[in-house]
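Handout for the seminar on molecular recognition.
Each group receives one record of this type.
Step one: identify the two inputs.
Step two: read the structure output and locate the region that could contact zinc ion.
Step three: write two sentences on what you found, then compare them with the reference statements printed after the record.
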Amino acid sequence: MIVDTHAHLTLEGLREDVEGVLSRARRAGVGAVITVGIDPEDSRAAVTLAEARSGVWATVGVHPHEAARVTDAQLDDLADLARSSDRVVAWGEIGLDYFRDRSPRDAQQQRFRDQLRRARELGLPVVIHDREAHEDTLRILRDEAGEGLRGVFHCFSGDLALAREVLALGFYLSVPGTVTYPRNDRLREVVAHVPLERVLLETDCPFLAPQPKRGRTNEPAYIVHTAAEVARVRGLEVGDVARITTRACRNLFGIGEVRTNPIAYPIRRSLYLNVTDRCTNRCAFCPKHRAPVVKGHDLALDHEPTADEVLAAVEDQGGPEAWDEVVFCGFGEPLLRLDLVKRVARELRARGARRIRINTDGLASAVHRRDVPAELAGLVDAVSVSLNAPDAETYERLCRPGIPDAYPAVLTFLSRAREQIPEVTASVVAVPGLDVEACRRRAEELGVRFRVRPYNEVG
Ligand code: SF4
Ligand SMILES: [Zn+2]
Ligand SMILES: [Zn+2]
């Protein structure tokens, strides 16, 4: 499911055929649409529409173009409207537009502040319109932010530096169809480098149709082109982008459904298995301490699954043959459940798995006091071992292992794995300050492949 987080279904071009627009959206996989108000009358129309149609939600607010015309009484009425309907998920769109300057700038700024305060009082997130007014928009947001003001920069049009400022304020970025335009490398650069967990998708229809539909009236169904471009830029599948951005939408606006399976979860063309949340290490950089979410999947386990439960979860995802590879991974150390991993791997192979990989911290032989790589020989095609450090001291500091002499144990595991398993990779997370080149030399000495994983990005 994809959410179009910013549409104007009440405007000319869409309102004449809302039924058709929404049914095409549903067929394209758009599960929810937020229709955004731009003035008092339009906000009322948006709420009426949202109340009448399933899958449609609304915002109320006054666009900067209308700032000079709106009265305090009208803003009070909008606040009442927001309180009166559970279909209202945000206040907006509000902000500053110095490109068209349709209202004087001081009026824009005043009404922006007035509406931020009302949103904060109502506990609603805000939808920000910022066109060529980045500096003033950020300044006013910082002034008015207070506790708990949250929101999104819709139709984000800044560069990566601005994106980072927006993220640091706790706000989200919303990516429109313009990301598909051949000349828009700047927005693609932003998309490539920001955490997708803080990105929303939108059409801003009826405006800004994506490249394949350029020149036509934009509509929510066309958001699939935006999702496809974001997926291309990030090296993901469209389904990954849909899931991650829908979860972001859920976090910000409280709508959008994300159904995931914590035991078997797809990312790209791989199916990952989460068999335990226990781990030998307590890595300083481990993301599970923040939230057990990977690429939009919630991996919180209410119990450790049995082998049969793992296999059933794989079947729910189309069976092992549906994927390029099946990977034991999750938010814990899979080889703590060595016997389960061996049994499941054997069964997956029998059921047609093309490739089986294990992501491990490489401490299993020390924990079980067995030669684990030898036991995995013939069962798995690849192992990725978290090396994470060029020496024992750094390893102790970064990975905080629960067993003694852990670093030499990882090195032994790697060299035994190289003798037993076709493809062996040593990986490091690029923690700031880590001597990555020294880690690479370690991997070379051991005769295994080497991979650097970005810091603060899992999956
Ligand atoms: S080995 Fe992986 S799961 Fe375990 S603490 Fe370290 S980063 Fe987290
Ligand atoms: Zn706008
Ligand atoms: Zn808009």
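Reference statements: The pocket of zinc ion (ligand 3) is lined by residues 6, 8, 36, 93, 204 (CB under 6 Å). Residues 105-122 form the longest helix (18 residues).
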